[in-house]
Amino acid sequence: MSDHEATTAPGAGDFVQDLTDQTDDFSRWYGEVVQKAQLADYAPVRGCMVIRPYGFAIWELMQAALDRRIKETGHQNAYFPLFIPEAFLAKEAEHVQGFAPQVAWVTQGGDERLQERLVVRPTSEAIICHMYSRWIDSHRDLPVLINQWANVVRWEKVTRMFLRTTEFLWQEGHTAHATAEEAEDETLRMLEVYRDFIETELAIPVIKGRKTDQEKFAGAVRTYAVEALMGDGKGLQAGTSHNLGQHFAKVFDITFQDADGARKHVWQTSWGVTTRLMGALVMVHGDDSGLKIPPRVAPVQAVVIPIYRKETERAAVLEAARQAASNLRSAGVRVYLDDRDQYTPGWKYNEHELRGVPLRLELGPRDVASRQVVAVRRDVRAKEAVAWDYLAVRVPQLLQEIQQDLFQRALDFRERSTRVAETLEQMELILGEHRGFVRAHWCGKTSCEDEAKARCSATIRCIPLDDHSGPGKCVVCGEPAETRVVFAKAY
Length: 491
Description:
36% of the residues lie in helices and 27% in strands. The chain is of the alpha+beta class.
């Protein structure tokens, strides 16, 4: 019997076996994985969550990767207040109407009732526009390219950890420009930043597109989004980028003097992604054993598990395991040596599978004698013996292969789950049997959008920017339509 065959004791994986199967109840599976993998837990306040250290470590890696991209495009980070005067939010009617049902109010400070209510930040356009009206005076002050990492509060009626919570973390960029063309370029540039970040770091394929007027951000001229498909066939809005035009600039009197001395209003954008991407990570890549974390955002990319049955084997195996871990750290791999004596190797296997560690490195007495480790991939469970001298080269290669394969499997799933409908009856049948994305022509009328939603419980996720299907007939009314849009049931 080899070192690796003798390690899984009965009951070692009970905490994994207790997971609900995805096919039985995807929603319940999701909640169990989030809690059992120690990503987050429920807070005492309804709709709020506690992000646990393991979950926050993933978020920090995501944050660092996106923050680098944001700064590379010329943006700077700043911070604006959590509390916003009611009068600021009320200045822009469409904006306040869009957020009114979700706003949390502060009415009292200490023992004193406030003369003016304060809004707990649901988004920061109002307070940032007020500041921009003070900071911007000349064309020389433009463009203003500012981002902030913050928390926001939206009083949601139905919540689910990471996907929709009363309080969540995000970044929100807010920019001001001299021309409409610059603002549109910025909006699309940041949409591409999101696509690159989500596909490269999170291994989640997305569709770039424009939102319908009914689905756009309150107060925006145009809203663009990146849309992803979850493992249960539901869509998820993974990030948004808004061209705000001059709406907020006129309301908050944000003007500049151009080179000819004329006074003009600025053109603005805002854009953001949130901790719901953590939920997407779980739902796109996870399986019945738990998480599969893409290596680029995995807090632990490789776990070294020493295996021994006799006390006389312990010292040599542990020393070899420590050396292997040290060599990998020197190669830039985020590695964890799991040398806990109170757990069996089999128990550890199951725990690290549940938590989605991309690569497991098993090391027993025979491996020490052969100067090798056995590498086991989390995504496909393939095993490979790796010589010690080659470890620092092969492990980074394996991690890159896992990253690429996770993306390809998610892309293949999306393609298999994307269908075409020519009539509303076809779309209703497709979404009733399969879920997934449905590409169908839409004439642009809100009435047709509403009827499709009522009949199929599906919304237009976006009007793809890369669609080349050409004109056709609206899936609802049969009238001419320029292009196909993406419908789906969604979170």
